[in-house]
Amino acid sequence: MAVIGWIGLGNMGGPMTANLVKAGHEVRGFDLNPAALDAAAAAGVKPVASIGEAVEGADVVFTMLPKGEHAQAVYLGEGGVLASAQTSTLLVDSSTIDIESARKLHEAAAGAGFRFVDAPVSGGISGAAAGTLTFMIGGEAGAVADASRYIEPMAGNIIPTGAATTGQAAKICNNMMLFINLAATAEGAVLAERLGLDKKVFWDIASVSSGDSWALRTWYPVAGIVPTAAANNNFAPTFTAELANKDINLAMSAGRETDTPLEIASHVQQLFQRLIDDGLGAKDCSAIVKLVDGTVDELR
Length: 300
Ligand code: NAD
Prior knowledge:
With about 300 residues, this protein is of the alpha/beta class. The chain folds into 2 domains: about 5-165, NAD(P)-binding Rossmann-like Domain (Rossmann fold); about 170-300, N-(1-d-carboxylethyl)-l-norvaline Dehydrogenase, domain 2, CATH 1.10.1040. It has 14 helices and 9 strands. It has helices at about 15-20, 35-40, 50-55, 70-75, 80-85, 100-110, 125-130, 140-150, 165-195, 200-205, 215-220, 240-255, 265-275, 290-295; strands spanning about 5, 25-30, 45, 60-65, 90-95, 115-120, 120, 135-140, 155-160. Helix 1 (about 15-20) runs parallel beside helix 7 (about 125-130). It is globular, with a radius of gyration of 19 Å. The model has no long low-confidence stretch (mean pLDDT about 95). The chain binds nicotinamide-adenine-dinucleotide. Nicotinamide-adenine-dinucleotide binds near residues 121 and 122. Nicotinamide-adenine-dinucleotide binds near residues 9, 36 and 96.
């Protein structure tokens, strides 16, 4: 049994910590949001009132935070992880953040004598709940191997990616492809219905044909087809439009830095931006289907 400090108990951190508790670990969790803390406590996480309490005496600390700015605040801020943890504690950031922030965290952690890996995940909240996430882990090989042992109860796949920040690089490229697939699925779903196809018949075909994708099988944006889809719950978030926009913007800025034209990603980013501008950034990202079928007003 290990002692695990965990910061960020939201849509992903909540079910991920539940799997660590089930595996027999002691998990001390901290979140700024009291409702997230209560939900984690109900799943067996020990709720604590500060980062300092979460990391004290921990074998490993995980962070699962929205963006680079939050991760920087949690690691580098006053009373943050680097100021509070013992240097023997392994640090694992599983948030999806920009490469520049990830580099800063690697450098600051190493400078303070810590081992740190970037270990973002793919698989959504359904994968988090099932313990089948894919982890992509960048950093020094020994630290990656040690992190993998703690990650195991949460993961279906654990893939070392190489040097520091390459986990984030893999995640950014993967999510760009996911959101392009999601937009294509939304357009296909609406067009199929308008051509008179039964929604289930079309899904049955596409899911075993060349139109298949993870987005289609997990986030199909039409109610009553896929149990894990936010469409079943009026687009209550499993992955917010705000976070999807963050991720696709990470790809766009990486594209600019590497002189890579990302024309389709740029178009999909505008769809998320339209939801956000409509005040719907906290809805699920699959709500972009409402821009295709023209019923976005129903979500307000
Ligand atoms: P979320 O917004 O549901 O959860 C983030 C949590 O962090 C919130 O509960 C928030 O209160 C907490 N937090 C923010 N700042 C904090 C601070 N300073 N101290 C303590 N807690 C703080 O987000 P999520 O959906 O769980 O996503 C977390 C990360 O995982 C993001 O980077 C996201 O891109 C990535 N991700 C999400 C999914 C998904 O399907 N939701 C899938 C893969 C990766």
